[in-house]
Sequence to fold (73 residues):
Amino acid sequence: MAGHDEFDRDPERAKEAASEGPVIIMEEDQPSYVFMTYSHFERLRAKARSLIDRLSMPGLSDIELDVDRDRKG
Fold:
């Protein structure tokens, strides 16, 4: 994680960190942005697309799902 000001002062350091994985940019002690390499972004996008494709398979709406929920409370 990096503060917004720290990110602005040293973007090269953020790039190096992003090569290891996503970097969360903080503003006012709250996560605000995620900085990552484009290849990491593409992998995430491909996974999301794969899930959407699976959920929109023809015939999926014909499958019955019986779910028992424990309703404590």
